[in-house]
Amino acid sequence: VVLKNDQDVFYYGEVHIGTPGQVINVAFDTDQAYSWIPTLAALGSHSLHRWYAPEQSSTHQPINRMFREREGDGKCARDLLTIGSLQVRAFEFGVVANITHISSWCDHQGCWDGVLGLGFSGASVPLLQQLVNEKQIDEPAFAFYLDRAGERSELSLGGPAPERQQGDFHFVDLAAGHRSSWGVDLDAVWIGDSRCFTGATLAYVNPSLSFAGGPEDQVKSFAEAWDTAPDPDGFAPIPCDKNGPPLVFR
């Protein structure tokens, strides 16, 4: 699946929902398994985003269950999902009619219209497992190749694309009780010869995010190693080309 780049923060791609397919740009969220797409009622007639119109799909199947998540609420439904060269015949997602929790997103002129979850909890049958069950892919795995120019970025379902792989993969076991949210055991974070985040025992790996986070006091010392400081929102930006001490997670 070809991905587009929005300010090196969001990478999103195109899918088709329904019959005939309705083109929707989605952000691929590895932190959650549920997916949602807005309706016109959620966006308003002046929105620049695309929306899902259930009445225009001959394969739309309503589900007698409400959809309520942090982004908004609506009703659950199933429909045909086409993602790249793959298809899921009865893909379940939220048809969101109220997105007041992310109302500022409605006015954003770019990018993604909805969210496609790649996680393993929060859905009756996660998308990757559904693709395996329907013999679309061999294993429930995915891989991202991200390019800052944005033109060559891609998502591979079923595993990494061999032509993108260099060297060997290093595997890290997921922590017991936190596997569905990509939690890993963490001893400490080292910045050069200095050890920080010493009280941490767990970290969550989330490719959907473009920043690292932690306790406020330790993030401050973390930022000082790169001669920067958190802004009023708590973010400490570090330019990618800035020289600094090695950063090691153990």
How is this structure best described in words?
The chain has about 250 residues and is mainly beta. The chain contains 4 helices and 15 strands. Strands 1, 2, 3, 4, 5, 6, 7 and 8 form an 8-stranded mixed β-sheet that branches. A 3-stranded antiparallel β-sheet has the order 13-12-15, covered by helices on one side. A hairpin with a 4-residue loop joins strand 2 and strand 3 (about 20-30). It starts with a strand and ends with a strand.
Question: What is the H-and-E element order?
Answer: EEEEHEEEHEHEEEEEEHE
Integer average pLDDT: 82
Contiguous low-pLDDT stretches (5 residues minimum) are none
SS element count, helices: 4
Kindly state the percentage of residues in helix: under 10%
Work out the radius of gyration.
20 Å
The total beta strand count reads 15
Shape estimate: globular
Distance between the termini: 32 Å
Main β-sheet: number of strands, strand sense, barrel status? 8 strands, mixed
Strand content is 25-35%
Q: Which structural class fits the helix and strand makeup?
A: mainly beta
What key attributes describe this structure?
single chain, about 250 residues, mainly beta, eight-stranded mixed beta sheet, three-stranded antiparallel beta sheet, 4 helices, about 35% strand
